[in-house]
UniProtKB/TrEMBL annotation, chain A:
Reactions it catalyzes: 2 superoxide + 2 H(+) = H2O2 + O2
Occurrences of domain Manganese/iron superoxide dismutase C-terminal (ranges): 159-275
Organism: Rhynchospora pubera
Pfam hit, one: Sod_Fe_N
The protein's name: superoxide dismutase
Extent of Acidic residues compositional bias: 54-64
Gene3D superfamilies: Fe,Mn superoxide dismutase (SOD) domain (1.10.287.990), Iron/manganese superoxide dismutase, C-terminal domain (3.55.40.20)
Domain Manganese/iron superoxide dismutase N-terminal, residue spans: 67-150
Source domain of life: Eukaryota
UniProtKB/TrEMBL annotation, chain B:
Cofactor(s) of this protein: Fe cation
Keyword set includes S-adenosyl-L-methionine: no
Molecular-function GO terms, alphabetical: metal ion binding; superoxide dismutase activity
The Manganese/iron superoxide dismutase C-terminal domain, residue ranges: 145-245
UniProt name for this protein: superoxide dismutase
List of residues binding Mn(2+): H77, H129, D213, H217
Origin species: Rhynchospora pubera
Domain Manganese/iron superoxide dismutase N-terminal residues, every copy: 53-136
Main subcellular location: plastid
Cellular component aspect of the GO annotation: chloroplast nucleoid
Amino acid sequence: MQPATACASSGLTIPWLRRCSSLRVKCSTSQRAHCASTSTADTAEPIEPIEPIDPIETDPEPDPEPFKLKPLPYPFNALEPHMSKETVEYHWERHHRGHVDSLNAIIQGTEFAEMELENMVLTSYNEGNPLPFFVHASQVWNHDFFWETMKPGGGGNPSGVLKYLIERDFGSLDELAKEIQNAALTQFGSGWVWLAYKAHRLGVGNDINPRPSKKDKRLVVVKTPNAVSPLVWDYYPLLAIDVWEHAYYMDYENRRGDYVSVFLDKLISWDVVSYRLKNAMFRASKREKMEKREMLLDKMKEATLRVKVRPTPKARPKMKRRQY
Amino acid sequence: MVLQLVMAPNWCGCGVASANSTKISTNAFKMSSNRFNFSKPYPGRAYRVTAYYSLTTPPYELDALEPYMSKRTVEIHWGKHHNEHVERLNKHLKTSAFYGHTLEEMVKATYNNGSPLVEFNDSSSVWSHDFFWESMQPNGGSMPKGGVLDQIEKDFGTFTNFKDEFTFAALSIFGPGWVWLYLKKNERKLAVAPTQNAISPLVWGDIPIIGLDMWEHAYYLDYKDDRSAYVNNFLDHLVSWHSVMVRMMRAEAFVNLGEPKIPVA
């Protein structure tokens, strides 16, 4: 949970403000009503002095539910007839909730409880040697992502930048659908199929692109086993299809191909995918700028270290004054 | 009638007319000139006899395991999933170096000590599913008898202990997998182990005795996400101790399980 942030002008805590590290948090003018009504000194009553609280005695109890099950953005029967109410209900209520509960049980009281979910997924992956709660954290993240990728009355065609990139990287929407089908059918066992935005990164310390451009970054279709997601490979996921059998068995039995094609034709929300793409492109370019800046700073630092500085000025002969 | 050879045989045993032989036409015994040659039905054509795997049938009707495993589940599990594995395996075998291997050999070889080759998933699935159908019977479950019970009690303490361990292993699997009761060759005792995806104790050289499919397709239609009910029903009502006994008997040919307890008079 994000802690509530305080308004800069009045000092009151407002839960709906989002923390933004580079801007000073301030309420918008429309929400200044509370400032106007409470910040005048004339009407303020004298405040009673509060006794100082001993911090050790009032150590708060660890929150038993650091993560709460996020509600679905639509009712259970909204995706009928492509995904039945029973499937959605069981999937969300039993599987998704099960992961949330398991995650809470493991991280309650530890330092991981304050982390954001995405951060937790990356930390617990531990570069291929996952900690025990990785599967739960990752599945919670994946399922949140999955429910938001769908919408009632979904389907249609992508537009804008997403359409341009799909056509640039796959040829056409049909080619993309074919690749996604192929990935889903060749994923042996359980897993996920993703469309991700990939900025070419090698994953080593000095893989900074000195001249980054939009052409380096591509859309890719990837498939992951069990609970893994492309976050751990530093990709930006755009859409997710759950190919665990519990996601489609009651509606499609063993016909995974039919499930995926119905997902792409009737359930997917291209708006959400476009939004995520824009977000991903922004974050990728921001990251590149930051890294380029750091690289330049490092270079400057190196250059200053190489300059030789004399501790005392060189001894030169004194200049003779002409005697006029 | 006198039996006479029509043609003098040459060194290869087939009849070849030579210039010196006299051809006496009779209705007597003729050397296989009219018999249908099954290995070469169309003379003059080149042949290579090939054989592929086929889908084996479970030893009971598809609805025989009701109400613990519904007919629909068995129909789809066997008719679609198992069948798909067989077909994919055959497709691989058309071009694979493992053509002609027995299924067990292929499973062990394609596992490649942890870096499985492309045929592994399908061959192991076919073997495991064959094993799974034979591990069950209608009116199964209850207690094993005799030697099997003795061996289980020797290796697990009590029969209930074995059931608890089996259930715990089954529920500990994350994602698709199998749970096995198998005979360890080196330690000469029974043990329970869960495995991921399509792995079976064959890959590490031990002898499986019971296999239970914990992939979601095996139980989702009947039990949805209640895996413990599925495993308990399997142990109480479906597992075929008869086939366990047969498998143990076969395993004893490979593993010495100790001296039999012959009572002294």
